[in-house]
Amino acid sequence: MAELKARGSPIDYNVQVSNERILAAIKNEIIQEKRSELLVSLNPDRHVDYLRSKCLLSEEDIEEIRHLTTRKKRASLFLDTILKNGPKAYDKLCESLLQERTQLFLLEMLNTEFERRKNSYISLIQPEEKEDSSYLQISNDHFSLPKPSSRRLPVIEVDDPE
């Protein structure tokens, strides 16, 4: 296999991505896809202090979020900001929802979707164990086998050119 160079280093095409990174990507994707539902109900003012204490938001981030006039705009910037700040955004948001205990339906929605996707991912990387297919199982049921025809086939005579 030919090696391509990128800044003097060979590119490894057999890169394996860890399950942890894949699950983190799934979590961030869930936040992005459930954004519209989150924007309807999420009150970022209840979560900024907790997420600041977990270093997911800076003081500047909080000021920018609080400066916006409507809750929906604050929620939008809040989601954008936490998603930019690392792979732990989903986990820390869920922790904050759990700690606040006022929007547990959002936590349930996020975790239900995560469990569904995680199970789907697991089924892709670990298919169900099946019987050993290297051996064929042949049935000896003589009733299911085709039976020879009882009628006689016509005999075709061929003239011998001698």
Automatic annotation (TrEMBL):
<protein>
    <recommendedName>
        <fullName>CARD domain-containing protein</fullName>
    </recommendedName>
</protein>
<dbReference type="GO" id="GO:0005829">
    <property type="term" value="C:cytosol"/>
</dbReference>
<dbReference type="GO" id="GO:0051059">
    <property type="term" value="F:NF-kappaB binding"/>
</dbReference>
<dbReference type="GO" id="GO:2001238">
    <property type="term" value="P:positive regulation of extrinsic apoptotic signaling pathway"/>
</dbReference>
<dbReference type="GO" id="GO:0043422">
    <property type="term" value="F:protein kinase B binding"/>
</dbReference>
<dbReference type="GO" id="GO:0019209">
    <property type="term" value="F:kinase activator activity"/>
</dbReference>
<dbReference type="GO" id="GO:0032449">
    <property type="term" value="C:CBM complex"/>
</dbReference>
<dbReference type="GO" id="GO:0003713">
    <property type="term" value="F:transcription coactivator activity"/>
</dbReference>
<dbReference type="Pfam" id="PF00619">
    <property type="entry name" value="CARD"/>
</dbReference>
<dbReference type="InterPro" id="IPR011029">
    <property type="entry name" value="DEATH-like_dom_sf"/>
</dbReference>
<feature type="domain" description="CARD">
    <location>
        <begin position="23"/>
        <end position="113"/>
    </location>
</feature>
<dbReference type="GO" id="GO:0002250">
    <property type="term" value="P:adaptive immune response"/>
</dbReference>
<dbReference type="GO" id="GO:0006915">
    <property type="term" value="P:apoptotic process"/>
</dbReference>
<dbReference type="InterPro" id="IPR001315">
    <property type="entry name" value="CARD"/>
</dbReference>
<dbReference type="InterPro" id="IPR033238">
    <property type="entry name" value="BCL10/E10"/>
</dbReference>
